[in-house]
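pinned: reference chain
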Amino acid sequence: MHRGTEMHYFDFYESPMGRMLIVATDQGLSGLYFVDQKYYREVGRDWLRSDHHEVVLETERQLKEYFGGSRKQFDIPIAAQGTPFQTRVWKAISSVQYGDSITYSELARRAGHPQAVRAAGTATGRNPITIIVPCHRIVGSDGSLTGYAGGLDRKRALRALEGGGRSLFAGAQSTHRPADTRA
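pinned: its C-alpha coordinates
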Protein backbone atom coordinates (compact mmCIF):
# COMPACT_ATOMS: atom_id res chain seq x y z
CA MET A 1 0.00 0.00 0.00
CA HIS A 2 1.36 3.40 -0.95
CA ARG A 3 1.49 6.23 1.53
CA GLY A 4 -1.71 8.28 1.31
CA THR A 5 -3.67 5.45 -0.33
CA GLU A 6 -6.79 4.33 1.45
CA MET A 7 -7.06 0.58 2.04
CA HIS A 8 -10.21 -1.12 0.79
CA TYR A 9 -11.62 -4.24 2.41
CA PHE A 10 -14.22 -6.38 0.73
CA ASP A 11 -16.30 -9.50 0.99
CA PHE A 12 -19.20 -11.03 -0.87
CA TYR A 13 -22.67 -11.44 0.56
CA GLU A 14 -25.18 -13.91 -0.83
CA SER A 15 -28.43 -11.99 -0.71
CA PRO A 16 -31.76 -13.49 -1.74
CA MET A 17 -31.62 -11.16 -4.75
CA GLY A 18 -28.16 -12.19 -5.86
CA ARG A 19 -24.53 -11.99 -4.88
CA MET A 20 -23.38 -8.62 -3.57
CA LEU A 21 -19.97 -7.02 -3.17
CA ILE A 22 -19.40 -5.11 0.07
CA VAL A 23 -16.53 -2.59 0.01
CA ALA A 24 -15.32 -0.73 3.09
CA THR A 25 -12.55 1.55 4.22
CA ASP A 26 -11.59 2.44 7.76
CA GLN A 27 -13.98 5.42 7.42
CA GLY A 28 -17.05 3.33 6.56
CA LEU A 29 -18.97 1.59 3.80
CA SER A 30 -17.79 2.79 0.39
CA GLY A 31 -19.63 0.37 -1.88
CA LEU A 32 -22.45 -2.15 -1.97
CA TYR A 33 -23.16 -3.63 -5.40
CA PHE A 34 -25.03 -6.51 -6.95
CA VAL A 35 -22.27 -8.26 -8.89
CA ASP A 36 -24.30 -8.18 -12.12
CA GLN A 37 -25.56 -4.61 -11.84
CA LYS A 38 -24.81 -1.70 -14.11
CA TYR A 39 -21.77 0.30 -12.92
CA TYR A 40 -20.46 -2.63 -10.88
CA ARG A 41 -17.09 -1.82 -9.36
CA GLU A 42 -14.53 -4.54 -9.93
CA VAL A 43 -12.43 -5.68 -6.98
CA GLY A 44 -9.16 -3.77 -6.92
CA ARG A 45 -5.86 -5.65 -7.08
CA ASP A 46 -4.71 -4.07 -3.84
CA TRP A 47 -7.96 -4.66 -1.92
CA LEU A 48 -7.95 -7.04 1.00
CA ARG A 49 -10.68 -9.68 1.31
CA SER A 50 -11.75 -9.57 4.92
CA ASP A 51 -14.48 -11.50 6.68
CA HIS A 52 -13.66 -9.77 9.96
CA HIS A 53 -13.54 -6.04 9.11
CA GLU A 54 -16.01 -4.28 11.41
CA VAL A 55 -17.87 -2.38 8.67
CA VAL A 56 -18.07 -5.44 6.40
CA LEU A 57 -19.46 -7.60 9.22
CA GLU A 58 -21.95 -4.95 10.32
CA THR A 59 -23.14 -4.46 6.74
CA GLU A 60 -23.72 -8.20 6.36
CA ARG A 61 -25.62 -8.34 9.67
CA GLN A 62 -27.85 -5.38 8.83
CA LEU A 63 -28.55 -6.65 5.31
CA LYS A 64 -29.63 -10.01 6.72
CA GLU A 65 -32.00 -8.20 9.10
CA TYR A 66 -33.34 -6.04 6.25
CA PHE A 67 -34.04 -9.00 3.98
CA GLY A 68 -35.54 -10.85 6.95
CA GLY A 69 -37.98 -7.99 7.51
CA SER A 70 -36.74 -6.87 10.92
CA ARG A 71 -34.66 -3.82 9.87
CA LYS A 72 -36.18 -0.68 8.39
CA GLN A 73 -33.25 1.70 8.81
CA PHE A 74 -29.50 1.23 8.44
CA ASP A 75 -26.94 2.80 10.75
CA ILE A 76 -23.66 1.98 9.02
CA PRO A 77 -21.12 4.78 8.54
CA ILE A 78 -21.06 5.79 4.86
CA ALA A 79 -17.84 6.69 3.04
CA ALA A 80 -19.04 6.92 -0.57
CA GLN A 81 -16.93 8.89 -3.02
CA GLY A 82 -18.60 11.17 -5.55
CA THR A 83 -18.88 14.71 -6.80
CA PRO A 84 -20.42 17.32 -4.48
CA PHE A 85 -23.66 17.13 -6.50
CA GLN A 86 -23.74 13.31 -6.34
CA THR A 87 -23.18 13.29 -2.58
CA ARG A 88 -26.04 15.80 -2.10
CA VAL A 89 -28.32 13.56 -4.18
CA TRP A 90 -27.26 10.44 -2.26
CA LYS A 91 -27.89 12.24 1.04
CA ALA A 92 -31.36 13.22 -0.19
CA ILE A 93 -32.02 9.61 -1.24
CA SER A 94 -31.03 8.48 2.25
CA SER A 95 -33.77 10.67 3.74
CA VAL A 96 -36.53 8.65 2.02
CA GLN A 97 -38.03 6.40 4.66
CA TYR A 98 -38.64 2.66 4.45
CA GLY A 99 -41.76 1.93 2.40
CA ASP A 100 -41.97 5.49 1.03
CA SER A 101 -41.08 6.77 -2.40
CA ILE A 102 -40.40 10.11 -4.02
CA THR A 103 -40.09 11.18 -7.65
CA TYR A 104 -36.86 12.21 -9.34
CA SER A 105 -38.27 15.75 -9.42
CA GLU A 106 -38.73 15.75 -5.65
CA LEU A 107 -35.26 14.25 -5.26
CA ALA A 108 -33.73 17.12 -7.28
CA ARG A 109 -35.63 19.61 -5.09
CA ARG A 110 -34.41 17.94 -1.88
CA ALA A 111 -30.84 17.97 -3.22
CA GLY A 112 -31.11 21.75 -3.67
CA HIS A 113 -31.30 21.74 -7.48
CA PRO A 114 -34.99 21.63 -8.50
CA GLN A 115 -34.21 22.16 -12.20
CA ALA A 116 -31.64 19.33 -12.32
CA VAL A 117 -34.06 16.39 -12.52
CA ARG A 118 -32.13 14.45 -15.18
CA ALA A 119 -28.82 15.06 -13.39
CA ALA A 120 -30.39 13.81 -10.14
CA GLY A 121 -31.49 10.69 -12.03
CA THR A 122 -27.97 10.16 -13.34
CA ALA A 123 -26.50 10.59 -9.84
CA THR A 124 -29.07 8.11 -8.55
CA GLY A 125 -27.93 5.56 -11.12
CA ARG A 126 -24.33 6.03 -9.96
CA ASN A 127 -25.18 5.44 -6.31
CA PRO A 128 -22.37 3.15 -5.05
CA ILE A 129 -24.30 1.87 -2.03
CA THR A 130 -27.43 0.12 -3.22
CA ILE A 131 -30.22 -0.69 -0.73
CA ILE A 132 -28.60 1.23 2.17
CA VAL A 133 -28.74 4.45 0.14
CA PRO A 134 -32.18 3.38 -1.06
CA CYS A 135 -32.35 4.47 -4.70
CA HIS A 136 -35.05 1.81 -5.23
CA ARG A 137 -37.39 4.28 -3.48
CA ILE A 138 -37.09 6.82 -6.30
CA VAL A 139 -39.85 6.59 -8.93
CA GLY A 140 -40.95 8.28 -12.13
CA SER A 141 -43.23 11.32 -12.12
CA ASP A 142 -46.27 9.07 -12.57
CA GLY A 143 -45.17 6.67 -9.81
CA SER A 144 -43.79 4.09 -12.25
CA LEU A 145 -40.65 2.11 -11.54
CA THR A 146 -38.03 3.61 -13.82
CA GLY A 147 -34.35 2.81 -13.90
CA TYR A 148 -32.39 0.88 -11.31
CA ALA A 149 -28.76 -0.18 -11.73
CA GLY A 150 -29.63 -3.56 -10.19
CA GLY A 151 -32.50 -4.11 -12.64
CA LEU A 152 -36.20 -3.35 -12.50
CA ASP A 153 -37.06 -6.84 -11.20
CA ARG A 154 -34.92 -6.18 -8.12
CA LYS A 155 -36.37 -2.69 -7.70
CA ARG A 156 -39.86 -4.19 -7.83
CA ALA A 157 -38.89 -6.89 -5.28
CA LEU A 158 -37.31 -4.36 -2.91
CA ARG A 159 -40.42 -2.16 -3.11
CA ALA A 160 -42.58 -5.24 -2.39
CA LEU A 161 -40.38 -6.19 0.57
CA GLU A 162 -40.81 -2.72 2.04
CA GLY A 163 -44.52 -2.75 1.34
CA GLY A 164 -45.09 -5.24 4.13
CA GLY A 165 -44.94 -8.40 2.03
CA ARG A 166 -44.03 -11.67 3.66
CA SER A 167 -40.38 -12.27 4.48
CA LEU A 168 -39.23 -14.02 1.31
CA PHE A 169 -35.59 -13.22 1.88
CA ALA A 170 -34.75 -14.58 5.33
CA GLY A 171 -32.27 -17.10 3.91
CA ALA A 172 -29.52 -14.60 3.03
CA GLN A 173 -26.10 -15.36 4.39
CA SER A 174 -22.47 -14.47 3.96
CA THR A 175 -20.39 -16.66 1.66
CA HIS A 176 -17.65 -17.21 4.21
CA ARG A 177 -19.66 -18.63 7.11
CA PRO A 178 -22.15 -21.49 7.22
CA ALA A 179 -25.76 -20.61 7.98
CA ASP A 180 -26.73 -20.70 11.63
CA THR A 181 -29.36 -23.44 11.89
CA ARG A 182 -30.15 -22.99 15.56
CA ALA A 183 -33.77 -22.11 16.35
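why pinned: The longest strand covers residues 18-25. Helices lie at 54-68, 84-94, 104-110, 117-125, 152-162.
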